[in-house]
Amino acid sequence: MAARSLCRLARLLDPHPKTFGGKIRQLWRALQLEWHLSKREILILYLNRAPFGGTLQGIGAASWAYLGKIACEFKLFRGGNAGGFAASSSRLRPDRWPERAEAARNKVLERMAVQGVWSREQVKESREEPIWLAPRQMPQLAPLFSRMMLGKSKSDKIVTTLDAGLQRRLEELAQNWKGRLPPRSSLAMIVVDHTDMRVRGWVGSVDLNDDSRFSHVDMVNAIRSPGSVLKPFVYGLALDEGLIHPASLLQDVPRRTR
Questions:
Q1: Which of 65, 77, 88, 251 is most exposed, with minimal Cβ within 10 Å?
Q2: Which of 235, 232, 207, 203 lies closest to 220, judged by CA?
Q3: Is residue 250 part of a domain?
Q4: For residue 115, what pLDDT band results from cuts at 50, 70 and 90?
């Protein structure tokens, strides 16, 4: 791996001040990476953390924002795109500087052809592809739940019990109900599997992008008075004990039962 990219990775993993001492620390971190990791491992670390313009970090976010697909679905030319963008993310952003980005991509493709990584036919096909696709919204499945989990764990990989299909249906249901809610109101839903008490679905607010509904507040975790939430459990216990039946009429007055 090029020394420049190795030093960039060292800076991303261990930020330091732009001083002489900071530069020495960066070089030391780079040497540690070279000693303990393979070239492939270093490259994976770099691509998953490198800036790709704006607020985009990592090749996964960049591939979705610029090309509309996750990184593992890249065609050949898109690998050339990624290599070009990573070299100078701000100066080569395809949404702002398409000519620069195309020139950088073609330079990477030509180098790969010279080194025999790709054939001339593959390079020619890749040059004909557009440099980027129309922008699209980044996927935001269970955003408030994800934010909570990221705050609890420092691990690079977090495994949860959410059901992705169920989560999408819950978020669609929340969007369908949004128009029926009063102004400045939101909603929350949580689905728990009663067999193992694991959380399968989590909707903390009606729409994360609607600030008028305070949607960055996770209402699942919000402290509130239980109110009517307890009624089904109280009524269920009363039914089990034979104190009431489904047709019972209860007076709304204080009552003490021994």
A1: 251
A2: 203
A3: no
A4: confident
Tokens describing residue 71 = 């990184």
In the DSSP assignment, the letter for residue 206 is: S
Please report where in the chains the tokens 């890249």 appear, as a residue: 74
Q: Let me know: does 81 contact 94? Beta carbons within 8 Å.
A: yes
Angle at 34 between CA 32 and CA 38, to 5 degrees: 125
Residue 140 · residue 210 · CB < 8 Å: no
DSSP string, 25-77: HHHHHHHHHHHHS-HHHHHHHHHHH-B-STT-BSHHHHHHHHHSS-GGG--HH
Instruction: Write the pLDDT tens digit of every residue in 85-114.
Output: 555 566 777 777 778 888 888 888 888 888
Condensed to tens digits (0 to 9), the pLDDT of residues 143-163 reads 999 999 988 888 878 899 999
Q: Are 196 and 170 within one domain?
A: yes
Of 238, 234, 218, give the one whose Cα is nearest residue 226: 234
Identify the three-state secondary structure at position 190. Answer: strand
What does the pLDDT look like over 175-199, one tens digit per residue? 999 989 999 999 999 999 999 999 9
Token couple for 145: 């739940």
On whether both 79 and 162 belong to a single domain, the answer is no
CA distance 172 to 2: 46
Q: Does residue 256 fall inside a structural domain?
A: no
| CA angle (41 as vertex; 37, 43 as ends), nearest 5 | 120
